[in-house]
Design a protein that fits this description.
β3, α2 and β4 form a beta-alpha-beta unit. The protein is about 40% helix and about 15% strand. The chain has about 270 residues and is α/β, with parallel strands linked by helices. It is globular, with a radius of gyration of 20 Å. The strands form two sheets. A six-stranded mixed sheet has the order 1-2-3-4-6-9, with helices on both faces. It has a three-stranded mixed sheet with strand order 5-7-8.
Length: about 270
């Protein structure tokens, strides 16, 4: 199978293993990856997921050999169309798989080698990105006239700003891990071959915390786009009420008893 999973404590690592194509996404892999992430979302035994591409490549984008087979079709992307505005119906997956999912739990991209074109869009869909020092991103599909279809033109400017996003989108140039870190396109750079271990360690750190609170704060970050300040803060407050009663008051009691003092994260 192109997609497999491995669990360790509360972290699930989802592995894309189609290295003969540098983990480019074909339809079968896209179906399996979305299914794996839906399964992660519904599994209460795991709190954080890590996406990793086997064999030294995160994802080289949409499988252009498959895309070439669509040539001549009147509407080659019809299976990915959103329902018409004003109608109801399930939203189909994106061409790259999970890029239209809205999960309640965080996902971390562990990037070795290329995360380019649609592979970059998958990385952008993730909450955090850990890159090996020799990994890279780029809108490489610019060369072939293939547009960004999985949120790249939406998430990239939100993450790094419009000017920088347009630089990357319009030039299609290679973006090294060091530049990604400098412009906010990734959050960690580690030694070559170490992205998976570093991402899993980060995931373990996040999974240690009370999860209702962490998920409420994460949800507020995503929900605030498009809201004015007052509405965003109202939304934050309403979303935090239940986690405070479920977890926060108990946490305050632990603190008052002497645990986790002075920034100590080990005895929480």
């Amino acid at each position: 199978m192109a997609i497999t999973t491995e669990d360790c404590n509360s972290v699930r690592t989802i592995i894309h293993d189609r290295y003969e194509a540098r983990n480019a996404m074909d339809p079968a892999s896209g179906d399996l990856l979305e299914a794996a992430l839906r399964a992660f979302e519904s599994d209460d035994s795991v709190s954080v997921a890590v996406l990793w591409g086997a064999g030294g490549a995160f994802c080289a984008g949409w499988d252009l050999k498959f895309a070439a087979e669509l040539s001549g079709q009147p509407d080659p992307l019809s299976s990915y169309d959103y329902p018409a505005e004003g109608t109801t119906g399930d939203v189909p997956r994106g061409p790259m798989g999970p890029t239209r999912l809205q999960l309640s739990k965080p996902v971390i991209a562990a990037i070795e080698g290329p995360a380019v074109a649609g592979g970059m869009e998958i990385a952008l869909w993730c909450d955090l990105r850990v890159m090996a020092e020799d990994a890279y991103m780029g809108v490489y599909c610019r060369r072939w006239g293939v547009p960004l279809l999985d949120g790249g033109t939406v998430r990239l400017p939100r993450l790094i700003g419009q000017g920088r996003a347009l630089d990357l989108i319009l030039t299609g140039r290679k973006v090294t891990a060091q530049e990604c870190l400098a412009i906010g396109l990734c959050e960690r750079v580690v030694e070559s071959g170490g992205a998976r271990a570093a991402a899993e360690s980060l995931a373990e750190d996040i999974a240690r915390f009370p999860q209702a609170c962490a998920r409420a704060d994460r949800a507020s970050v995503y929900a605030q786009y498009g809201l004015d300040l007052e509405q965003a803060m109202r939304n934050e407050f309403e979303g935090g009420k239940t986690p405070l009663s479920q977890e926060g008051l108990a946490g305050a009691t632990r603190f008052s008893s002497g645990r986790g003092r002075h920034g100590d994260f080990e005895t929480i």
